[in-house]
Design goal:
Layout: H1 13-21, H2 26-37, E1 49-52, E2 57-60, E3 66-68, H3 83-89, H4 123-140, H5 144-163, H6 167-182, H7 191-205, H8 212-218, H9 223-237, H10 250-256, H11 261-277, H12 285-299, H13 306-313, H14 317-330
Antiparallel strand pairs: 1-2, 2-3
Helix pairs in contact: 5-6, 5-7, 6-7, 7-9, 11-12, 11-14, 12-13, 12-14
Length: 336
C-alpha cells in the first residue's frame, strides 16, 4: 500500500476532544469504539477486511481503507529460525489433542534415566523413577473407559502411521471413536474393529482414502469384520461419507510407479470423461484409478506393464484389462 492510502477509519484525537467539549460523555465514546470493533466489513464499500500483521492494521481488501491501526501483537516477543530453537524458547506446552486419551493434559515421565544435567541416575534413583512411571501410568488411566480409549487411540496411531495418513485424519478418527464410545456402540464389537472403522471413515471424509485391502494388511481384524463394523458405525453415528473418488487414488499410484506429471493429468482427464459418460457407476474406484493410470501411461508412451500397476494398486490384472479399454473409448479424443 502507498502513502496516499486512506488512513485509520474513525474520528481522530482532535475530533474526539471537540466532541467531548460539546458535552459528549465518555460512555458514548466508549460505546462508539466498541461498535467500531465489531465491524467485520468495510464501512465504505462493504468489502472484505484483512489483517496486515506486519503493520498492525486492519485493511479493506477492495478499496484499501485502513479500518484499524496500531493493533496489539499477540504473538511471541522472540524469533526462532528452526524447530529446535522454537521448542527451546517456547514457554507454553503442547496444545490439547483428541489423539491422546487425556487430550495431552497429563504428565508424561520420560524413559531416560538421567537428571537435568544429563548425568546418569544411581541405581536407587532409577528404581524410584520406575515406580513413579508405574504409578503415573495407573493414574493416567483411572477407569475402564480411559483404558479402552488409550488402547484404541494407540491402534489408530499405529495404523495411520503404516498407511501414511496425516494428523488431520488421525484427529478426525479419534473424534469418531470418542463418539462411538460415548454412545455405547462398542459392546459386542472389538476395540480394534471400531478403531479401524473410525480411521477408514475419517480417511474417506478427508478425501485421502485407502482401499479395504490396504486397511486389512495393517489392521488386526479381518476384512469381513472391518466392513461390517464400518457400516454399523456410519449408520449409528449418522456420518456423511461420500463415495470414494477414483481421482484421489491417482497421485499415489503415479508416485509409486515413478511416472511423470503428464501421466497424472491424462489419468485425471480420462476419469473426468468417464464420469461424464456414466461408466464409473457401480465400479470399484481403486480399479478405475489403476486402469486410468495404465491407460494414461499408454497414451504418453510410457513403459508400464499391467502386472506393475496391479501390484501397486493391489488389484487383479483382469480388472485393469476390462476397465482401461472402456476409459480409452470414453476419452478417445484425448489422444488426438
Amino acid at each position: 500500500m502507498t502513502e496516499s492510502r486512506i488512513r485509520n477509519y474513525g474520528r481522530s484525537e482532535e475530533t474526539e476532544e471537540a466532541t467531548a467539549s460539546d458535552g459528549t460523555t465518555e460512555e458514548t465514546n466508549e460505546a462508539e469504539r466498541t461498535e467500531a470493533d465489531r465491524i467485520t466489513t468495510c464501512p465504505e464499500c462493504d468489502g472484505q477486511l484483512i489483517t496486515d500483521t506486519e503493520h498492525g492494521e486492519t485493511v479493506c481488501a477492495d478499496c484499501g481503507l485502513v479500518v484499524e491501526a496500531d493493533s496489539v501483537d499477540r504473538g511471541p516477543e522472540w524469533r526462532a529460525f528452526d524447530a529446535s530453537e522454537r521448542d527451546d524458547k517456547s514457554r507454553v506446552g503442547a496444545p490439547t489433542t483428541n489423539m491422546m486419551h487425556d487430550k495431552g493434559l497429563s504428565t508424561n515421565i520420560g524413559w531416560q534415566d538421567r537428571d537435568g544435567y544429563g548425568k546418569s541416575l544411581s541405581s536407587s534413583q532409577r528404581e524410584k523413577m520406575q515406580r513413579l512411571r508405574t504409578w503415573n501410568e495407573r493414574f493416567r488411566t483411572r477407569n475402564s473407559k480411559e483404558r479402552n480409549l488409550k488402547q484404541a487411540l494407540g491402534e489408530i496411531d499405529r495404523m495411520a502411521s503404516a498407511l501414511g495418513l496425516p494428523d488431520t485424519v488421525r484427529e478426525t478418527a479419534s473424534v469418531i471413536y470418542r463418539r462411538a464410545l460415548s454412545e455405547n456402540l462398542l459392546p459386542g464389537r472389538s476395540i480394534e474393529g471400531v478403531a479401524t472403522a473410525s480411521l477408514y471413515a475419517a480417511a474417506r471424509q478427508a478425501g485421502n482414502p485407502r482401499s479395504l485391502d490396504e486397511f486389512t494388511a495393517v489392521s488386526r481384524v479381518d476384512k469381513m469384520e472391518h466392513t461390517r463394523t464400518y457400516r454399523y458405525v456410519v449408520r449409528e453415528l449418522g456420518l456423511e461419507v461420500q463415495p470414494a473418488d477414483p481421482e484421489s487414488y491417482v497421485p499415489r499410484f503415479v508416485s509409486r510407479l515413478d511416472l511423470p506429471e503428464e501421466v497424472e493429468r491424462a489419468a485425471r482427464e480420462l476419469l473426468k470423461r468417464a464420469k461424464e459418460t456414466g461408466i464409473t457407476s457401480g465400479k470399484s474406484p481403486v480399479g478405475l484409478a489403476a486402469s486410468a493410470v495404465y491407460a494414461a501411461a499408454l497414451l504418453s508412451n510410457r513403459k508400464v506393464t499391467q502386472s506393475e500397476v496391479s501390484e501397486v494398486a493391489d488389484i487383479s490384472e483382469v480388472t485393469i484389462r476390462n476397465r482401461y479399454k472402456e476409459l480409452l473409448e470414453a476419452g478417445d479424443n484425448l489422444s488426438t
